[in-house]
Amino acid sequence: MIQATMDFLKLYWAPLLCGLVIVAVLPLIVGYIVLVERKLMADMQARLGPMRVGPHGLLQPIADAVKLLIKEDIIPDNADKLVFWLAPVLSVGAALLSIAGLAIGPAFQIARDINIGILFVVGVSAMGIFGIVLGGWASNSHYSLMGSLRSSAQLVSYETAAGMALVSGLLLTGTLNIKAIVEAQYTEGIWFGMLAPVAFFIYLVASIAETNRAPFDLPEAESELVAGYMTEFSGFRWSLYFLAEYTNMIVVSSVATTLFLGGWLRPFARVAFFNFLDYVPSLLMIGVAGYCLLRTPKQPSRVQQLFMLAVAVLCFAVALVLLAPAVLPIAKPFYAGIHGGFWFIFKVSAYIYFFMWLRFTIPRYRFDQLMRLGWQFLIPLSIVNVLVVGVALIVSSYFNLHGWAMLLVTTPAAILALVVALMILAAGQEGQAGKESAAAPDFYGG
Amino acid sequence: MVDKVLFYIFAGLAIASAALMVTRRNAVHSAIFLVTALLATAGIFLQLRAEFLFIVQIILYVGGIMVLFVFVIMLVNLDVALQQIQFARQKWVALIVALALSAQLGLMLWSSEKIPGQGIPVLAAPAASDLPPNSEAVAQSLFGTYLLAFEIASVLLLVAMIGAVVMAKKEK
Known about the structure:
By secondary structure, chain A is mostly helical. Chain A is built from 16 helices and 2 strands. In chain A, helix 6 runs parallel beside helix 15 (about 365-400). In chain B, helix 1 runs antiparallel to helix 2 (about 25-45) and helix 2 (about 25-45) runs antiparallel to helix 3 (about 50-75).
């Protein structure tokens, strides 16, 4: 028994260690994503956002985490205790487990070379919905139940559209293995987001709906349902739901990055003319460090000045690490790992930034509008798109087109899909014209 | 060794949660145990190196069908269902069927030990590295060997779907 355990550890110590690191570090990352979101929201609304804890509120996530940990843990009297306890754990467990399949650069992947790569990520993260549904049911409250009903309806409908969008992307790669997907984009020399822009758009919309973010945040719409399925959850359990939600954001944006945005590849990874892009990561970090240095004397107190200085030094150190593989021959073998990690995280951050931007720009949908968008627009469009992309692939392999030349075929295909989309929209408008006077259907507590 | 331990864990979990699923009074608890039973079955698939079946089991049954189950359970009025007697009075029929089934299984196990060449054939497990990638193998048998059967099944499902839509529309 002990021998078997030792053998097991010998084989799998590296993935286990990576998993531990991810579980330990992810809450911190999520905390800082929340801070970035609050700062962005403040900026777009001409406010300052959190400023008190640390310089420019840089320590706010840690203060928030401590506050959530020491809050009183309230379980409603008539709640189903066991399910109430289980639900947030399910949500977080599914979200963290699905990260195991992702590849953050070619060097960092927990479950290496699994044949079902992207399906594993999508399938396991879809299990998190049970946490939401059961949590809403177990709290024994009407708002919670309505929130979870809305959420399960929303997730099931949008998962179909997202799945079909992924199918059109996967047609281009011909594999489910995450590493092979990125390598296929390397050999083609073009990101699949350009070859299948309609699929990318559908996945973008569906992934926002799947992570319950505005404008599709109906399961927790505060003006209608207090806080939806999390109404009765407080303190640590509530923070587990938040951890799951933001982890899911990271997961969906990683899937989109891997399949549509070239994964860990630099833009124009195969063109030697663009090799100067290798200096961009370190220049960017030096720029951030310089800005922090500039702001240091302006901090109000001595501690805050020192902290800002420390942040500047940290950014500078990261810049040096990023610069080393591009300049030093000794560090060359680490190039793929370090720069791959940078580009992957950069793209994921850009995707998440887009999520936030949308949240502060577009008002929330009504529930029937949301369902109509999902079932009557996105799902037909995604099915048509799979057909169109398939035909385009056959044509391009007939003429032996590769890389950028494939755009000759895929662009008309995308335009065709767009025309179909407009026709679907027009048909929907016509169908709606007669019913316009009727009130919005009062279903799902909407 | 690890394989054997994992198999017994998954199999035990599947059987225990299946038993719990039919005996719970609360429908949502039953649904949760059905989910664990399905997940344990998925684990056995994975242990047999059928990773595609594993993830399809999770995506379709756990992520799709079970979510709809739970959705419907929440929509119907459970308080009424809880007060009703939930077990059909067919104890004796069920007992006879169960006994017949276990006798059949037992006979198969017994005969495979006593009479060589009879009952369940025990195949030698090929090494994991010799197995073809599971998703490709499934695709080849679905879209190559059994293409006609697969298409007929798809059309049948499509007909059922259209029928469901038509029936739902009639009620308006």
